[in-house]
Amino acid sequence: MSFQIIHNKKMSLMALIFALSNLNAQKLVHYDLTIKDSMVNFTGKTKRAIAVNGQIPMPTLTFTQGDTAEIVVHNELDEETSLHWHGLFLPNKEDGVPYLTQMPIPPHSTYTYRFPIIQNGTHWYHSHSGLQEQIGMYGNFVMLKRNTDPSFRKGIDDLPTIPIVLSEWTDYKPDNVHRMLHNATDWFAIKKNATQSYAEAIKEGHLKTKLTNEWKRMLAMDVSDVYYDRILMNGKSTSDIKRIYKEPLKGGDKVRLRISNGGASSYFWLTYAGGKITVVATDGNDVEPVEVDRLIIAVSETYDIILTIPRDSIAYEFLATTEDRTKSASMYFGISGKQLKSPQPRLKYFEGMKMMNDMMKMNGRLDDMGMNMSLNQMDMNVVMYPEITGDAKPSQSDDDPNRYNANALSDITTLNYAMLKATQNTSLPASAPVKILKFELSGNMNRYVWSLDNKVVSETDKILIRKGENIRMIIYNGSMMRHPMHLHGHDFRVVNGQGDYSPLKNIIDIMPMETDTLEFNANVEGDWFFHCHILYHMMSGMGRVFTYENQAPNPNIPNPNYSWRKLKAEDNKFHWMAENDFATNGSDGMLMIQNTRWSLNTEWRLGYHDMHGYEAEMHLGRYLGRMQWLMPFIGFDARYRKVDINDIEENIFGQQSTKDKRMVGSLGVESTLPMMVKFQAEVFTDYIFRCQLMREDIPIAKRVRGGFMLNTDKEYMVELKYILNKNMGIRTHYDSDMGVGFGLSLNY
Ligand SMILES: [Cu+2]
User: Fold this and answer.
1) 538 Cα to the center of ligand 1, angstroms
2) Residue 20: pLDDT band by 50, 70, 90 thresholds?
3) What's the rounded Cα separation, in Å, for the pair 115 and 646?
4) Alpha carbon of 695 to those of 445, 698, 708, 716, 720: distances in Å?
5) What predicted TM-score, i.e. pTM, was given to this entire model?
């Protein structure tokens, strides 16, 4: 015991001397960041973006471990902003999440972040306000390791280095992208040539696949949701690296790339024409070098990789391709000439659809068929990759245990999380109590609601944890999309079979049907966000907040209740859509306003000829269940027609109502049936009962949609629409009341 004390005294004295000697070395590194609206032109059209210090991406901020960062933000926007330091260990009040760790930075004001740099590695920073990240607010954040650090790796940490931030650009306003996603528009699929319509299914011999898919109530899916106009590496589609540190690149040179995926929703395949890629770090944490042919970088992940230039005087292409393979960006390393990397071939969408059909149960839950998937080792998307399974149908039978294992099926080595091994022991304090938290990633494509355990942030409380305990999170992805889950303020160990050398990360990509286990020691008080880093998923409420028991109040949050309410309001926003058809026989349209659970929907019809008058219906409903296939509603129905006063309408139940004038309320329920048919049962205040079957947007061909409606009032309608562009189509329909019509359909 006494020995222990003496030892500790000795240690603290040494620590003091070390700290004093370090005081000189420690420096304050200051950056000024001026955030300004600016006009950019990536595609030939001038659009609004946000630039910082006049550039997109934001400038790379470089520090050395031991420095103190002082970053002064000058917000010259007409809106609020914030900056989050992604992957950094810092005091909670510097974490940059508006209404959680600080109040938003008001327009035309200045705000200072100041925190010590206590780690090293490749990280990045971005706006955590609204959708600002999509239009330019992302940049690299590099913390260098001291060369006296015992973990300094010769041949890796002393290589010439290039920071790279990957991103995407869309000419659409991000608010509009978000709205279109919630409205389940397939405009992005048309742009990507990925509609997977019936005509395409028949052409590829997959009619049964398509029918099964719709029977199971699935919309055509892609590996990503949003169509982008450009992919950017450091703000450019292509760039040439001919020199590094002023020396021309030559054969045998090695370059270290510090890559952050600053994209809002795109994963990227990274490939290199000059040979293997050596992965040396991820999310700012060193790993044992591992050689691969390619890797996928999830949204908001970082990887440090080493490329070798094979020969003099040839420029080798380093390629980042979106996961859906529709767009890419390149960087060429070398003096002249160009050695291209062959592009990633187009996805076999119907193979993916068939695979999803096999996994999907009728109740909307996924069945992993006993494969216990984790750590991206079993990649379900493999069935869509021609480079692995060939152009023909895959020969792997259903009982082949390797049928989704890319590395077993081909000579191409693809990185997965099981291959990552930390360079240092990462085990957690052994004596700490363990708290186990289980989450299921949930969501539904049709209404674009994303959640944990079918609850969005605004429907939950903060999750209480205790300082000192070890938190083990077991996360199962029960949704049909992959999600990059990010934890603020802490690194977690990814339990991947490497024991004490499990890698540390702050992002984990979880594929559908995967279960992954993460653990971290709760060691910094504060309110820390844990969320999906796909921007549009996060904004839909896919996250939770961790908070420490009995923690000191955050001086930046003077009114915690108000702030928490404001944070929760983010995922409760209403989105609207509208459609109107201007046809020869009349005009009909709809307006819908929706959020996570509620929907207010108005439909109207104005007849010119056969039906001279109007009809309007309104429904206010709440979606129930995980898949939101059921919606009870209250309604209001009004109609007026200039017809013979004695004209009586009779439904199939023999109930009669006057056709000319009606003003009634209603109570009903809507349910989505197999084949995506909507069934409505509605009883009106005049006791008239109505059942209705309806299907919209049947994807007949790439740009052709069909629809029908049939009800117990003996009314029916069939329609056909040709999509001209995002907001316009040509529509023809036959309506039992209004007759044949032909016209222009506008939608927003
Ligand atoms: Cu997500």
Assistant:
1) 7
2) very low
3) 81
4) 17, 7, 6, 12, 12
5) 0.92
